Structures are given as C-alpha cells and as structure tokens.
Amino acid sequence: MISCEGYATKNVAVVGLGKSGMAAARALCRSGARVVAWDDGEAARDEATGEGIPVRDPARVNWAAMDALVLSPGIPHTFPIPHAAARMAKEAGVPIIGDTELLATSGAQAPQIAITGTNGKSTTTALVGHIVEQAGRDVEVGGNLGPAICDMAMMEQDGCYVLELSSYQLELCPTARFKVAVLLNITPDHLGRHGGMHGYTAAKKNIFRGQGAGDTAIIGIDDDVTQSIYEELKLTKDRKVVPISSERKAPGGVYAKGTQLIDDMDGEAVAVMELSTLLQLPGRHNAQNIAAAYATARSMGLGTDSIVQSIQSFPGLAHRQERLGELNGVAFINDSKATNAEATAKALVCYDNVYWIAGGLAKEDGLDSLVPLLEPVRHAYLIGEAAGAIAATLDGKVAYQLCGDLETATEMALSVATTDGLAGATVLLSPACASFDQFRNFEHRGDAFRAIFERLCNDARGGA
C-alpha cells in the first residue's frame, strides 16, 4: 500500500468507495489523515463503516475545513452534471484529486510509466509490465487495469510503476510526472463526460503535462488527433518525443512495415521482430500496441534482444483476442471484451475463416459498420437480446443461426467448422454487444466461453 504521509493530520474527503476509492481511503487512514468517506450506494457505505472508516454525507461535511477531495474516476466533477460533493468542494476552493495524484505525492522513488488511449491501453500496459518483469526489475502494474493504485507497494528507484490511466484519471492528477508517457490513439469516446471532443482530447493530453528534461513522450500518429498532438510536442525541447505507427513510417520512432517491426529510434530503421508469429497479439491494432511497448522498454534502457524475447513470451490479455487453443484443427478466440462494433471490427480482419459468435445487449451504434468486413465470416451464431437485430443486418450477406445462448452457439460453431474442414478455421467470440442480458460483465462471458471450450476438449478426450 502506498504512503499518503503528505496528508497526515489533514482533512480529506473520499467520495466513491469502489475498488480505487476504498484503497485510497484505507491508505489515507493508515497514513494518519483525517478521512470522511461517502458513496451513493448503501452497501459501499456499510463496508467502509465496517472497516472503521468514518462515513458522512457530503451535505454534512465542513468543506471549508477540507484539504482535499479524493474523487473516484467514475464520478463526474464537471460534465454532464457534477456530483454534489464535487460542486461543494469547488465552491469551497478544495482541490479535487484522484488516486494517481496520491501516488505522485507519496514519495515513492520508482519511475512511473503511464499509458492511455481510446483503445489498446490495457494490452499495452500489460505487455510493458511483462517486459519489465522479464528483465528482472520490480514492477507494479495497475490503475485502470488490475490493482488500484493505492494498493501498490512503495518502491525505490530500482522499481517501476506501469499505470493504465483513463481520461477520467488524467483529469485528477495535477502534479503527476511520468518518466515515460504513452498516448496510443484518440477517437470519440466519453464525450458526454468531457463536454465534447475538445474536452476528451485535453484530458488525454494531460499525460504529458508534468514532463520535463529526461522524460519521454511516446505517441501514436495513426489518427488525425494524435498526429496533431505529436506535431505540437515536437516543438518542445524539454523531453524526447517518439512516434509510433502501425500504418506508416515513423522517422525517429517505432513502426510496423508489412509484418516487420522497425526500430528507428537511433535513426537506423532496423527490423527487430516478425509480427506474424505473435499469435496472441494479432492484427494491425496490436502492431501499434507492440510498437508502443517496444519504444517504452527502449526508453527505459532495456536491450533489444531482451525486449523481443519478452514480447514473444507474452501470453496475451484475457478476453482481448485471447487464444484459448485448438480443437479438431479449429482455433478458439475469446474476444469478449469487444462490446461494440469498432472493437469487433479489429478482430474480424485478423482471421481467414471465421465462425463468429455475436450478440448480447445491443449498443446504440448497431452493427452496420461491420458489413464491409464480413468476407471472412463463414457462418454467424447469434445470442442474446440483440440476436434478431443482428440477423436483420446479416440477412442476405452471411449465413446465420439464432442460437439463444453461448453454449449452444459454441457447440454449433465447432460442429460446422469441423465439418467444413477449412484451413485457419476460427471460432471467434467477438460479440459487438454488451453482456448484461445474460452475464454479469464481459469477463463473466469470456470465462463462460473458456469453460465451454475446456469442456468440449475434455469431451473430445473421452472425459479423461
């Protein structure tokens, strides 16, 4: 658990008692801060009370006496409507911060690597953490992925923090300085929370705000927004700026050229890795993630051979095009994290003969954008509430079957794929829908798919 000794004897309100909020409240209490906590949910308040953390309605807090409000990232403080606690804190001139700021002020000596982007940040964060760990260095990986920041250990200079940070978190860490800051991409997302695209972009750019001499900014140049930010950063002289790309040359950076990863950070444009062999990291989007992780590791002083070997040994991230294995010559891919059409589009282009499992709780944007990408789909197996709507989109374009549930869909997909006997056959769970009609969350859905696959494998072995 990180230290919050800088807040010892200070009055701190913590609002939002989920994973990150409870970790922050515990760390502050342990460090001697005078904490009052609140959550709009009764169960979370009861949990805090049970741990001896004082709970108080924000309306009963003396905000004039507060030194800080630690706000959980999911709670709005500006758009669309600020939470009452945030509004009262602002009126009283109380700083509003998040757990990333608590780490920044903790006194931990280990350098911090921060990674953000609309897409790919979880995979890149996990990959960087894996590379650093394989190099034999102490590393804590967390933030928006994995453990809460305040649950991380205090580390000295020989350690390293690798943080996945959302736009919400980056709005609440005014003094954070990241030794390496990575911005992968920016496409429209969370616009209601940030008051539009300008606000969302400004939040993402905060990742570079505290950097100075000796720090490194790594930035994707494959979309217009990040390309513009890259050009802006190049004009500054207080840090090294490294471009990355999965689509074009990136002079002075790292990029994909065909199936080769090219390292041009020293101006030599050397091919360092064959990307097509990385079965756990397929597709052009993962080429960008790999380029970012490679550039990050190089910026930390790690050697090329060590980095390449670590990337090759990376097992992949659960539920994100996770390769479960093969049965009857058919590959099974768990892409349950693909809860919208944009995410599923990235998966469909990665495989040749796809037996696609889709459906769940429909998103507003629908699946029309996937129609141009259906060529590799041999058959679709539709589940959940959205099955009928997806069938209407696919009608006359791809053969489909209304299956109802995931188990039926998986069994049917395997049966047809086995009978067809096509090379590169893949049963792909990439639902393009939310999971809440039949599952608790996308992890639950992905875990269920894995369990079905393992049961089918066991059945094929005769139950041995």
Strand order of the largest sheet: 6-7-5-8-9-10-11-12-13
Helices, by number, come to: 15
Distance between the termini: 44 Å
Overall mean pLDDT stands at 95
Q: What does the main sheet amount to?
A: 9 strands, mixed
Strand content range = 15-25%
Query: Outline, from the CA principal axes?
Result: globular
Q: Supply Rg.
A: 23 Å
Q: Give the strand tally.
A: 19
Q: CATH class of the largest domain, anyone?
A: Alpha Beta
Would you give the CATH topology of the largest domain? Answer: UDP-N-acetylmuramoyl-L-alanine:D-glutamate ligase
Structural class: alpha/beta
By CATH, the superfamily of the largest domain comes out as Mur-like, catalytic domain
How many discrete domains?
A: 3
CATH hierarchy: architecture of the largest domain: 3-Layer(aba) Sandwich
User: Helix coverage percent of residues?
Assistant: 25-40%
In the predicted model, the low-confidence regions spanning at least 5 consecutive residues are: none
Outline the structure in words.
It is built from 15 helices and 19 strands. Helix content is about 35%, strand content about 20%. It has three domains: about 10-95, Rossmann fold (3-Layer(aba) Sandwich), CATH 3.40.50; about 100-315, Mur-like, catalytic domain (UDP-N-acetylmuramoyl-L-alanine:D-glutamate ligase, 3-Layer(aba) Sandwich); about 320-460, Mur ligase, C-terminal domain (Protein-Tyrosine Phosphatase, Chain A, Alpha-Beta Complex), CATH 3.90.190. It is globular and about 70 Å long. It has a nine-stranded mixed beta sheet, sandwiched between helices. It has a six-stranded mixed beta sheet with strand order 14-15-19-16-17-18, sandwiched between helices. Strand 12 and strand 13 (about 270-275) form a beta hairpin.
